[in-house]
Please model this.
Amino acid sequence: MEIEKPKEKYDQLISDGYCVVENVLEDDMMIRLRSVTDTLLDAQTEEQLAATRSSGSMISIYMHSLFSELVVYTRALLALDALGFLRPKFSSGYVISKPPKSPPLFWHQDWWGWNDPCSYTALPQQLFLMYYLVDTTPYNGCLRVIKSSHLKKHPLHDILPNAHGADLQRVENPDHPAFQHYPGEIDIAVNAGDLVIGDSRLLHASHSNQSEERRTVITLWYHPFFALLPEAMQAHIGRMRQKLHWSEEDWNRIAELNPNYQGDIEPMKWNRTPGPELK
Model:
């Protein structure tokens, strides 16, 4: 697989906080992922759906072995390689699916390492790789982002509560600023099988799903420069392994991407709130 204009995509990722690599998922993998995700989503209870009403679902990818194949999917790793991320490490992921006629996803950013100075530099500490399993537009809940908000302060940084908090997930107050539109926000409409790569510090949300069909995305988290991260950050990432439904065969499959940490440094304290260094 050859990536078109990789230098331009890399520059966009660094400056804007995201880029799109088209047509990454092949048809066979798409069919398998749709089947597995539909089965997992159909099994959700009313209580689970209510708890994640805004995102739609937050199902760990460790719930099915197929996702271990996606973690090491050759075409995605080739895309990362073309962008200059030669030795990425993987940490976690989720199936995030908005049901028909569901509300928008709140604005948030997903980075947790704001206590360290490296979080205020241009190089990404953590990337999201989002695989959309259906064509996605503003009508059925496509991603929306605030360009460059991974490096520059935005008014939302001062008014957003804890990301993924219960009140936002349940949409207890749909008039909350986290659900509103903001000047300069960008819609990222994609075709099924496209891959959206983004910096975890980027402010992002999604539109409501006004359609009659679910809109499913699989989000995987990678660390493109794991070996260069502070040791306390490596310690935190290296201890995030979950068992759930993955077998030893699944873990062996992703062994090259497993962020093993063997030191004895205390893991970095979790902090999802940017400091005054973000200007």
Observations:
- Strands lie at 18-21, 59-60, 89-98, 105-108, 127-132, 143-146, 185-188, 195-199, 204-206, 215-223.
- The chain has one domain: 6-257.
- Residues 13 and 263 are 31 Å apart (CA to CA).
- The mean pLDDT is 94.
